[in-house]
Fold this sequence. Notes:
A hairpin with a 3-residue loop joins strand 1 (about 40-45) and strand 2. The chain has one domain (about 5-170). It has a 4-stranded antiparallel β-sheet. The mean pLDDT is about 90. The protein is built from 4 helices and 4 strands. The longest helix has 30 residues, at about 5-35. It starts with a helix and ends in a 7-residue tail after the last helix. Helix 1 (about 5-35) runs parallel beside helix 3 and helix 3 packs antiparallel against helix 4 (about 155-170). By secondary structure, the chain is α+β, with helices and mostly antiparallel strands. It has helices spanning about 5-35, 65-85, 90-110, 155-170, and strands at about 40-45, 50-55, 135-145, 145-150. About 50% of the residues lie in helices and about 15% in strands.
Amino acid sequence: MKAVFPRYLLFAAIVAVGTASDLATKSWAFGRLGMPGGRTEWLWPGRVGFQTSLNEGALFGLGQGGVPVFVAISVLAGLAIVIWLVRVRQWLLTVALACIASGILGNLYDRLGLHGLQWPDGFPGRQPGTPVHAVRDWILVMIFGWPWPNFNIADSLLVCGAILLVWHAFRYEEKPEA
């Protein structure tokens, strides 16, 4: 029972730092570059830069306009993570779940429109002044001259968490409880 509390602290710390980093960098990027269609700033010209985009879908923009569905999935996934966290004992799995939870929270915040962005003029199909319920992406990567879909820190945390889950699945065997 002694090791449970430190695992929960680790989980909470990763979620807090990850979510705060995601929200702060999104705010910074959109504050600096503005809404999509604005300028691109390059860190490594033609390869890695900053460019804002809004994603009303999921991974790679799939399911555009399905915000209510993605909100529901996020809430259910978050609840499943909390239940799983209570049942697990491995540190690696705790870190994986924390990364995933942090990514879920960062993108859920955006999907709920809590960032306060409103649609400006010039976005087809959008009423100017209405709230934006979309994930804010801002990291641009070009691979062999082709743009990878823009992403954010939350997306990176989700991917890292998923990789850790796969690693855990191949590395650890479940030990039966006595």
